[in-house]
Amino acid sequence: MISGTQKWLKKHLIDSQILNDYKKSLKEHTSVLILYTLLTFILTYPVVFKICNYIPGGGDAFQWIRILWYTPVAIFNPGLTNLTHDYLIFYPDGIPASPFQSAFNQILSYVLSSIIEIHVVYTILWLFSFIFGAYGTYLLVRYLTGDRTSSFIAGIVFAFSPYHFVHSLGHFGANSIEWIPFCALYLMKMFKEGGVRNSFFAGIFFILVAMSDLQYMMFMGIFVMLLFVYEIYVFLITEKRGYIETLKRIFYKYALFGFVSFIGIIPLALENILTATSSDNFLKLNPSETVTYSADLLSFFLPSVLHPVFGNIMTNIYNNFSGNTSENTMFIGYTVILLSLFAAYRLKGNKHVKFWLIAALSFSIISLGPLLHVNGKTSFTEFNTTVPLPYLALYYLIPFLDNCRTSGRFFVIASLSFAVLLGYGASELLKSNRINKKATVIVITGLIIFEYLAVPVSLSPVDEPSFYKEISQDKGNYALLEIPATKDYVAGSTIIYYQTIHGKSVIGNWAARYPSTARNFELNTPVVRELTYLQSTDDILDQDIDQVGTSILNYYNISYIVLHTNYMNDTEIDFAEKLIQMNLNAERKTYEKDSLIVYHVKKEPLKSFMVLKDGWNSLETLNLEPARWISNNATILVYSNSSRNATLNFNALSFQRPRTLEVYNGKTLQDRQTISTELSRLSVPISLKEGENLILLHVPEGADIPSNIPELKNEDSRELSIEVQNVRLTDSS
Predict the structure, then answer these.
(1) Cα–Cα distance between 442 and 49 in angstroms, integer?
(2) Which residues pair with 590 in a beta bridge?
(3) Residue 663 and residue 685: Cα distance in Å, rounded?
(4) CA distance 508 to 86
(5) Are 722 and 652 in contact (CB under 8 A)?
(6) pLDDT, position 4
(7) What is the pLDDT of residues 581-632, one digit of tens each?
(8) Model's pTM, two decimal places?
(9) How many CB atoms are closer than 10 A to CB 577?
(10) Which helix or strand (DSSP H or E) is residue 682 part of?
(11) Among candidates 69, 65, 92, 96, which has minimal Cα distance to 83?
């Protein structure tokens, strides 16, 4: 029975044919979404069936859950932390943070987490990437070919590719591929039809790509440049007149796209841009890592290690490759390759097929990185010859690409391109009257799914240790020292999830990128250093840890030391417990069910102590004693429990030539001495106030770099001025 609304529409707005077309379209798209959803549940088994207590993957996945949790915490608790500087990890100094690593997921998780647990939200967003990645590809190929069946198969190719599966197990940003085909759809509409609407929506979906993963934004930007150049090329070889007007239209539509995109991405990428253009660009890693994390040529032809049949065999081969498995999984499948070649042959005159073929090959080659890898090797023949690839030029030509070490991820665009080519090829094949179309579709789909199989998907349990639930009720702000969160990456990645329960700051842990000085507190602070790295370490500060250890932890408001015994061996547990019991005033409590031993550090009046702060190079030995170099400035925190006159005693020598050493307490000069190149004992009188005193060692002449002095034949690139050891603070008599 037709409703009153439908009658009104039929009578006053549209005719019955348009209404029927609308119903058919709605039915088609609803059916496609339902089918992709069911297929997602099957091919990601058993994720949806264990969604309440498990998450897909592990390791980095817990880091991402913490990122989703952190965003609203930073926004609504400005006194505790903020979006651009994360004070809840690497306590007490924190680290600079990229506020919108995956803004789309961050926003949705905030909305959903008010009614659903954060780890369940993570899994829902994870499933969403498969369903809408497939649906977007369906729309793209449906637009290009007009064939629903081949378009549906193409959606399977992009969404369920081995590339997507391996990254889905931890790389949540790289997992978020869903908006790439939508952006490509409107770019192709922009290419074929022009129009303000298509340029506008291409820009909107480009922003959504950036909101999913900033790295994908860069890849999609290169895709747009390729399309722009290709459109100019097609125009020049086909048009004989009207150059100016046509070129204007081409530039106009891309300019509009660029304008819309620019407005949207600047707020997302501004913090990264500022960091990347600063003198302390910690986003840029050693270029050798780009070589390490490039795809291996063999990986294009080898099934994934996740495959239930071939996985074990493939693991032995993948172990030969550099980097890790997830950055080396480029298998698109032999079925897809054959149908792509078939499309290229049958439609060799089709300019759209040509473009997607160029894109598939281009991004596949780019994913190989700057140097060719074959079975883990980058040099060949007895002459150790290397084969440079196009990425090497792009590395220097494209801004900010030097901050992306994982060139293998360029393959995400190649995988979409192959999905489109598959769509063209399958569509052409199904036009033949010589085949059984239903059987052909079943065979093609079955072969692709078999080649891509990754079931059962690896899961990690999500638990809530009772200790963390207990302290979550405590509204006080203090820090936890979690062992071995810094020493063991797998442990740290998992342990950081618990912060979403307790909400307290933690010392150290891990992040995708952080400044080289981020671990200074862990490396320089007595007691914290020994517990963090689970080894006894003599440093240059001469003080009794059993006397001042508790005061140091109290000063930094470190209330609990948590031993995660499931990540520690018996020797490490024994070392940590003896260190705590011998040097700290702390109460022990065991949570056997959760594999935790927790020490609550007791509060007591602070005693005088010293802690190394900024400007110190790593620990080394001089005459079998601990020593550290400084450049031109280094600081020591001296906490004094009273106002007094004291003497700072230490050994020192100057690098290569005599230098002046000025010692300040705050801004007040305490003493100035000349340091020779021979090791000598110095005594510097200083006036201490009660509480915190920041002692500055300043070298006016500056430092020298050993590698810049040819006669030394030394590769040390550090800035060195004075080496210091055996620092002791005594009362002046």
Answers:
(1) 27
(2) 597
(3) 9
(4) 12
(5) yes
(6) 60
(7) 999 999 999 999 999 999 999 999 999 999 999 999 999 999 999 999 999 9
(8) 0.93
(9) 15
(10) strand 680-688
(11) 96
- DSSP H helical segments within 146-242, as ranges? 148-159, 162-168, 172-175, 180-193, 196-212, 214-238
Q: What is the pLDDT of residues 269-320, one digit of tens each?
A: 999 998 988 888 888 888 999 999 999 999 999 999 999 999 999 999 999 9
| The predicted structure's pLDDT at residue 642 | 94
Beta strand residue intervals within 540-675, DSSP E: 558-564, 586-591, 596-601, 609-612, 620-622, 625-630, 633-640, 644-654, 659-665, 668-675
Give which of 38, 103, 18 is closest to 68, Cα–Cα.
103
What distances in angstroms separate CA 615 from CA 359, 610, 721, one per listed residue?
49, 15, 11
Dihedral angle computed from the Cα positions of residues 346, 351, 356 and 361, in that order, rounded to the nearest 10 degrees:
80
E-assigned strands of 95-139?
Answer: 95-96
DSSP string, 159-176: HT-HHHHHHHTT-HHHH-
Beta-carbon count within 10 A of 271 CB: 17
* Lookup: tokens for 74: 């930073």
Helices (H) and strands (E) in the chain, counts: 26, 19
> Taking Cα atoms as reference points, which of 104, 60, 98 lies closest to residue 82?
98
CA distances from 547 to 319, 331, 534, 638, 639 (A): 50, 60, 20, 15, 14
Q: Give the tokens for residue 722.
A: 């004075």
Q: Which of 18, 214, 8, 233 is nearest to 99 (CA)?
A: 214
The partner residues of 489 in beta bridges, in order of sequence, read none
In whole angstroms, what is the distance from residue 105 CA to residue 213 CA?
A: 10
| Of 695, 602, 697, 681, residue with least CA distance to 640 | 695
Q: What is the chain's Cα-based Rg?
A: 31
Q: What residues contact 275, with CB distance under 8 A and at least 6 apart?
A: 96, 281, 282, 283
Residue whose C-alpha is closest to residue 122's, from 177, 180, 169, 61: 61
Q: Shortest CA distance to 453 belongs to which of 306, 276, 599, 353?
A: 306
pLDDT at 433: 73
Q: Within 13 Å of residue 136, how many CA atoms lie on the same side as its CB?
A: 26
Q: Residue 325 and residue 635: Cα distance in Å, rounded?
A: 43
Does 334 have pLDDT greater than 70? yes
- Token pair, residue 616, equals 């110190």
Do 598 and 562 touch, CB atoms closer than 8 A? yes
Nearest to 134, CA basis, from 36, 35, 48, 28? 36
Nearest-angstrom CA–CA distance, 47 and 52? 10
436 CB-contact burial (10 Å; exposed 0-12 / middle 13-18 / buried 19+)? exposed
Closest-CA residue to 539 (of 660, 636, 672, 605): 636
Polymer length of the chain: 733
Tokens found for residue 192: 């074929």
In the structure encoding, which two tokens stand for residue 643, read together? Answer: 């106002």
| pLDDT > 70 in the chain, percent | 97
